[in-house]
Amino acid sequence: MEYIGSALQAHTLTLTLNRPDKANAFNRDMILELQTALDEAAQDEGVRCVVLTGAGANFCSGQDISEMLAVQDQDVSYHEHLRETYNPLILQLRQIEKPVIAAINGPVAGAGLGVALACDLRIAAESAQFTVGFTGIGLVPDSGVSLLLPVLIGLGRATEFTFSNLPISAQEALDWGLVNRLVPAESVVATATQIGMMLALGPVGAFGATKKAFNRAMLPNLEDVLEYEGELQEIAGKQDEHRIGVEAFLAKEMPNFL
Hints:
Elements: E1 4-9, E2 12-17, H1 28-43, E3 49-54, H2 65-70, H3 78-84, H4 86-95, E4 100-104, E5 108-109, H5 110-118, E6 121-125, E7 129-131, H6 145-153, H7 155-164, E8 168-169, H8 170-175, E9 181-183, H9 188-200, H10 204-218, H11 222-236, H12 240-251
């Protein structure tokens, strides 16, 4: 199965997360396909801007919990998993010297939120919701969320919505600077693509250098943060809270961590 759809128009490459039956949750193959697509986009002079979106009604619900459960008895290291998957993916999004626009067509959570936050611009559906997600299954934020979310909306708000696991509404996301623009759901991809085509006509080399400057000014410790998130996730993944959270998630119940 092809997990990443790809379409090029007027120097703007649209990459589509394509697991709509799973709310576009990431499995390993999907992450690796996206990494490859971004590598190719970085090298392709015909690509001057990237738009990232999701198929169907969701942008991305994060890591596929069923994949985590399938390897539970293999003593898989969450830290090593992050080193091979989400950590390099987040760095790719920040380091590609071309604009990357997230066309957030629906709900986004967990690692999917990290991916959206790592993009340069976020165009969101008026119906979109943003859920941190990790604490609901007894884990800590990874995929750069522990840095990128406070940078965009402030530490207090980031803490509240990480601890509560409640969704941030599209309007709140706009008001707080989490997204750049809200549009009707049916217009998200078209609007993001239009912006992408406009940027593709611009000085993409200067845009890339600007990203490097912003990374140095605002995210100089991103790589260290990703590594530390992995260390903490390794510990959290072995605790009873994680087991309780996953069991409740699968049963569609509220977890009881008492």
